[in-house]
Write a structure and sequence with these properties.
The chain is mostly helical. The protein folds into two domains: 13-43 and 159-214, Endonuclease Iii, domain 2, CATH 1.10.1670; 49-152, Endonuclease III, domain 1. It is 59% helix and 0% strand. It has 13 helices and no strands. It has helices at residues 13-26, 30-37, 49-57, 63-74, 82-85, 90-95, 100-115, 120-123, 128-136, 143-152, 165-175, 183-191, 197-214. Helix 2 (30-37) packs across helix 13, helix 3 (49-57) crosses helix 10 and helix 9 (128-136) crosses helix 10. The two termini are 31 Å apart.
């Protein structure tokens, strides 16, 4: 096993590489995945209201579409602060590209923050599983949204979004599984990568992108 000491936050490609080196030592099946993936970059988004709004923006749309929608949304005056977001009309937010359900979800989050029942500073003090439960207790936030927020915005090191379709496809291909794992299966597989599951997720997302975009492999 590697003796590299990993960073407590995945801020740079070197940080991610250190965690992946440990993962490969824990599970040698990941050596080939690392080789095909190449350099794995971290994904960092500001925490708090703007961060979770950006995660929600990216639900069930392509990366390119999410980027375009977020670019328009972020330019709407008041859109990135909870109190001022509550003053925006549905028409204004949907004109930026948000669906009705995404508008409502972000509105519920803004209201909870203003009321003091959703505290992102407190969230960052919780272990990952408790943090997921804390977020999912709020209307409109499901496990994927909570887990992606914890990875990209809160810097949790041990999160694996097991319901992410790209990850399920990449893990099937990368580990040579006969069938795509179910979410339950994926949770069990990823448990073996504790406490480095966030780095594992970044590795498999990159692996998926390489196979899909560079080599034309349909997953």
């Amino acid at each position: 096993m590697s003796t590299i000491m990993p960073s407590p936050r995945l801020h740079t490609a070197a940080d991610v590489a250190a965690h992946i080196a440990i993962l490969v030592g824990m599970d040698d099946r990941l050596a080939g995945v690392r080789e095909r993936a190449g350099v794995v970059q971290p994904r960092i988004t500001a925490p708090g209201f703007a961060g979770i709004a950006k995660v929600i923006c990216g639900q069930q749309v392509s990366v390119a579409s999410a980027g375009a929608i977020w670019g328009r949304f972020a330019l709407v005056p008041g859109a990135l602060e909870p109190a001022s977001y509550l003053q925006l009309s549905e028409e204004t937010v949907r004109a930026a590209g948000f669906s009705r359900s995404k508008f409502a979800t972000v509105r519920a989050i803004a209201a909870a923050m203003v009321a003091g029942t959703l505290d992102f500073d407190h969230l960052e003090t919780l272990p990952a599983e408790q943090a997921v439960a804390y977020l999912c207790a709020h209307k409109g936030i499901g496990p994927w949204t909570a887990e992606v927020y914890l990875m990209f915005c809160a810097g949790h090191l041990d999160v694996f979004p097991a319901g992410d379709l790209a990850l399920l496809k990449a893990v099937q291909h990368g580990l040579g599984l006969d069938a795509r794992p179910t979410i339950k299966d994926m949770i069990g597989i990823a448990r073996a990568w504790t406490p480095h599951r966030s780095a594992a997720a970044l590795l498999f997302w990159r692996y998926f992108a390489v196979l899909r975009d560079q080599e034309g492999i349909a997953l």
